[in-house]
Amino acid sequence: MLAWKATLDTLVEETMAFAKSARVEPTIPRTVVEPNRTSSLDWMKSEREEIGQRVANFKAHQQRFIRAREDYAASEFKRMLASSQ
């Protein structure tokens, strides 16, 4: 009954010694990655001005989507007309 305990203790000691002797070197050099940062807030502006600027940016973004959608629809319509003739 005690033989397996002695074998287990020996195995644990050998494993610990191996783990201490094994040295793993990183294959990729460590680099510092800067996170994507949003534009810093100007605390001197009022919140109303900041909200107004964000709304204006959102509207401009939406207008770009609308123009792209309309251009695509027009090109598809032209393609359909050309293929029907």
Fold and architecture overview:
68% of the residues lie in helices and 0% in strands. The longest helix has 38 residues, at 47-84. The protein has a domain at 60-85. It has helices spanning 2-21, 47-84.
Helices and strands in order:
Elements lengths: L1 H20 L25 H38 L1
Give the terminus-to-terminus CA distance.
93 Å
Shape call:
elongated
- How many extended strands? 0
Low-confidence stretches: none
Could you give a short account of the major beta sheet? Answer: none
Class by alpha and beta content? mainly alpha
Total helical elements: 2
Q: Give the fraction of residues assigned to helices.
A: 55-70%
Q: How much strand content do the residues show?
A: under 5%
Order of helices and strands: HH
**Average pLDDT figure:** 84
Radius of gyration: 33 Å
Which features does this protein show?
85 residues; mainly alpha
In short:
By secondary structure, the protein is mainly α. The protein has helices at residues 2-21, 47-84.
